[in-house]
C-alpha cells in the first residue's frame, strides 16, 4: 500500500479479523497479504508534507497542541525520586510564568519510580506512564515481562509502554509476539497499552506495517515507533506508515487507536511536520493527546521558547525556561 492507497485496499484475507489470529498460518497469511509499502511513494509524500507552512495563528495552536501531546520522559539508570518530582512539576506547569500554557500529556518513568510520579502528579490530570517488559531490549522471559507490567500498574501507572520481541517478529514467529502483547494487555487491566515496535530494527516499511497491524490485532491502544535508545528512532516516513495503519484499522473496525513517535524529535519545526502528517494521513480526529503523543522530552524546551516568541513577539533565550 502506498501512503495514498485507500483503506478499501486492505485485504479481506479472513473475516472477521479475530479469525486471522487463530493459528500461525492464518496470522502469517493475513500479515503477508497486506499490500506492500511503496518506499519511494511514502518517502516522497512525507517529504512533501514536511514542506507545508502554517500561518502565525495556526502556529500558536500547533505549538499548544504539541505541548499537550508530550510524554515528558526520564529513562536513565541515574534517575532519582527528586528528578521525577522535578519532571512532574514541569509537566504540570511547563512555563510557570505563563498560566495559559497547557500541561503535558504524561510523565514516563521506570516502574520503580511510578509511585513517586503518581504522588507528585495527584489531581493534575497529567497521566503517569511506565515502560515495562524489560525495556529497552525486551530480552527476558514472559514471566518477568508480566511481573514488570504488574509492578507498574499496581504502583498506579495509567499507561504502560511495552517493547515487542523483535527477534521473534523478524524470525516470523508472529503468533508468539501476538500472544505476548495480549498477555501484557491483560496484565495492564484498565491502564492503556502502548506497543513499541522499535522500527529502526525492523529494517523495512513492510515490516513496520506488519508489526503495526500485529500490535493492533493484539489490542494495543497505541503503536509507538521506538524506545529512543536505538538509531534511527522516529522518522516521518515510518510514522506515515503507522498513521495509515491506525486510519485503516478505524475504517475496518470503527475503533480508534493512537500513534506515538519517539526519539529524535527535538524542535518545534519537527513537531509541526508530524502534526501535518497526522492531519493528512490519519485525519483531524487524531489531533488530540488521546490519539497522538510525542515521546521527546527535549522537544518541550523548544516548544516553550517558540511559544514565548509567538506570544511576546520576540525570541526568549533558554534562560527563560527550564532546560533539561
From TrEMBL:
Q: Which gene codes for it?
A: deoC
Phylogenetic lineage: Bacteria, Bacillati, Actinomycetota, Actinomycetes, Pseudonocardiales
Q: Which Pfam families match?
A: DeoC
Q: What is its EC number?
A: 4.1.2.4
Protein name from the UniProt record: Deoxyribose-phosphate aldolase
Molecular functions per Gene Ontology: deoxyribose-phosphate aldolase activity
Q: What class of enzyme is it?
A: lyase
What InterPro entries does this protein map onto?
Answer: Aldolase_TIM, DeoC, DeoC/FbaB/LacD_aldolase
Query: What is the catalytic activity of this protein?
Result: 2-deoxy-D-ribose 5-phosphate = D-glyceraldehyde 3-phosphate + acetaldehyde
Entry-linked NCBIfam families: deoC
Amino acid at each position: 500500500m502506498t501512503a495514498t492507497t485507500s483503506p478499501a485496499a486492505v485485504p479481506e484475507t479472513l473475516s472477521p479479523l479475530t479469525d486471522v489470529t487463530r493459528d500461525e498460518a492464518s496470522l502469517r497469511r493475513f500479515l503477508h497479504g497486506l499490500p506492500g509499502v511503496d518506499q519511494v511513494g511514502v518517502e516522497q509524500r512525507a517529504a512533501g508534507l514536511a514542506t507545508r507552512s502554517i500561518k502565525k495563528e495556526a502556529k500558536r495552536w500547533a505549538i499548544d497542541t504539541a505541548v499537550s501531546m508530550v510524554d515528558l520522559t526520564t529513562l536513565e539508570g541515574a534517575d532519582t525520586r527528586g528528578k521525577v518530582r522535578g519532571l512532574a512539576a514541569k509537566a504540570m506547569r511547563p512555563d510557570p510564568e505563563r498560566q495559559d500554557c497547557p500541561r503535558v500529556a504524561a510523565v514516563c518513568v521506570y516502574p520503580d519510580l511510578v509511585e513517586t510520579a503518581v504522588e507528585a502528579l495527584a489531581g493534575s490530570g497529567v497521566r503517569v506512564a511506565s515502560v515495562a517488559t524489560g525495556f529497552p531490549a525486551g530480552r527476558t522471559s514472559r514471566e518477568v515481562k508480566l511481573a514488570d507490567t504488574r509492578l507498574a500498574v499496581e504502583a498506579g501507572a495509567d499507561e504502560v509502554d511495552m517493547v515487542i520481541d523483535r527477534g521473534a517478529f523478524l524470525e516470523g514467529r508472529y503468533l508468539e509476539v501476538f500472544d505476548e502483547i495480549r498477555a501484557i494487555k491483560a496484565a495492564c487491566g484498565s491502564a492503556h497499552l502502548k506497543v513499541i515496535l522499535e522500527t529502526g530494527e525492523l529494517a523495512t516499511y513492510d515490516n513496520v506495517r506488519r508489526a503495526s497491524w500485529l500490535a493492533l490485532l493484539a489490542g494495543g491502544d497505541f503503536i509507538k515507533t521506538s524506545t529512543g535508545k536505538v538509531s534511527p528512532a522516529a522518522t516521518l516516513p515510518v510514522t506515515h506508515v503507522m498513521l495509515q495503519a491506525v486510519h485503516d484499522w478505524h475504517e475496518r473496525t470503527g475503533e480508534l487507536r493512537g500513534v506515538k513517535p519517539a526519539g529524535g524529535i527535538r524542535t518545534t519545526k519537527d513537531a509541526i511536520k508530524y502534526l501535518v502528517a497526522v492531519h493528512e494521513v490519519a485525519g483531524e480526529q487524531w489531533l488530540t493527546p488521546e490519539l497522538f503523543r510525542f515521546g521527546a522530552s527535549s522537544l518541550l524546551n523548544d516548544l516553550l521558547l517558540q511559544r514565548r516568541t509567538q506570544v511576546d513577539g520576540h525570541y526568549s533565550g533558554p534562560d527563560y525556561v527550564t532546560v533539561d
